Amino acid sequence: MKTKFNFAEYERECVKCAKCVPTCTIHSINRDETTSPRGFIHLMANMQDGSLKLDKNLKKIFESCFLCVNCVSICPSQIQTDLMIENARAEIAAKFGLAWFKRIIFFVLKRRSLQNIAAKFGYLFKSCGFAAAPNGMRSRFALPMTRRGRLLPPIADQSFLNAYPERMDFGGDRTVAIFIGCLANYAYTGVGDSLLYILKALKINAFIPKDQLCCGAPPYFTGDMRTTKWLVKYNVEYFELFIDTIDAILVPEATCSNMIIADWLHVVSDEPEWVKRVRRVVDKTFIASQWLHNNTDLLSVTPSLDQKIASVTYHDPCHAKKTQGVFKEPRAFLEKSYEIKEMSDSSSCCGFGGVTIQSERFALAEAVGKNKAAMIAQTEAEIVSAECSACRMQIGEALNRSGGKQIFMHPLELIAQSLKKVGSNA
Ligand code: SF4
Ligand code: SF4
Q: In the CATH scheme, what is the code of domain 301-421?
C-alpha cells in the first residue's frame, strides 16, 4: 500500500459529470456535495495539495463513506473512489490514531486463541447481557460501541472451525478449501454447516484450514494498514502450504471474498514479490455461489419444487454484485425451490459500512438500514437472503428496529434446506 496515494491524478480524471451523486449511499441520507463521490474526490485532492488541512471535520467527512462502490460502477472515468477513501482513511489513522476499542478488536483479530476465548466467554454469559431475538440477540444495556436494544449477531456455542475435522472426505476426486470469515465462524455457523452439507451431496471433499485468520477487511476499511498487511501476509503464507493440493478456496461471504480477490492486491501493491504470491492464492479463490454454479452439478441437483418452500427476497451485497458481478447465481439456485419476491432496489446498499459506521457513526447505518428494511417489508416475503454476514448483521438490526418480520437466511442455508427437503443423501 502506497503511503502517499495520488489523489490529484484521480481528480484530474473526474469530468465532474455528477452521474455518481444520485447513486451515492451517504449522499442519499446527507444531501450535501461534501458527502458525495465528486465532493470526496475534490476534498482529497485539496488535502494533498495542502490547500485543505486534514482536521477532525475532514476526518468525519471521509469516515461517512459506506464503501458501497455505487459510484465506481457508474463512473464513466472509472474512478475508484472507494480505493481513494481507503487510502484517505490510512492517512487519517496515521494522523489521529485509532480508537481504543478498534485497537483491541484488531489486536484480537490477529490471534485465534483470544478470539476463541472471547467467543466462549460471550456464549457463557450472553444471557446476562443479551436477550434472544429473531436474526440475532438484543443487548440489554449500552456497550462501548453499541447502545441498548441493538441487535448483534448471535454467539455460537462452538465455532465452525472447531466443530469439524480439518479434512472431510466425501468420496470425490476434487477438494475445496473453505475460508469461512469471522462472522460465519463465530455467529452464523449454519453457513459453514450448509456448505459442508452441499459439498457432501456433490461428493466434493472439504478441507477446513484451521489456522486461517480474518481476511483483513475490518482494519482495511478503518485505515489500519499495518494490521491489514500483517493479516494478508499471514494468510497468504499459510494458504501457500496447501494451495497446490486443492481445486479452489470457497468463501461464502461477499465482503471477505472481495477483500481477498480484489483488495489483497491493493494492500501489497508496493511489494512486487508479494503481488505474485497473493495472485497465486487469488486465482483459486471464489465466492461460494459462483464456484458452485460454474463448476458443479448443484443447479441440476437442487430440487425444482412446484410447491415452493417459502418466499424469499434477495439482497445483492455491494461486494458481490457490483465488484464481482455475482447476482444471477444465487437466484438461479433459489428460484428452483423458493418463490422469489424482488424488492424495489435489491442493489441498494444495506448500510453496514464497516467498523467505524457500525460503532461511532451508527446513526448513518440506521438511516440507510431503515430504507432497506422498508423495501424488504414491502415484498411481504418470509425470508430475506444475501451471501454476506455483514449484510446479515445490518439487515437483522434494521428489521429489528422497524418491526420487520422477515427471517434472514444465507443462500447456502436455503439451498441445503431444499436438498434436505427431498432427502438428498448427504
Ligand atoms: S463508495 Fe458509496 S458511499 Fe462512498 S462515495 Fe461511493 S457511492 Fe458514496
Ligand atoms: S461519475 Fe466519475 S467522472 Fe462523473 S463526477 Fe462522479 S467521479 Fe467524477
A: 3.40.50
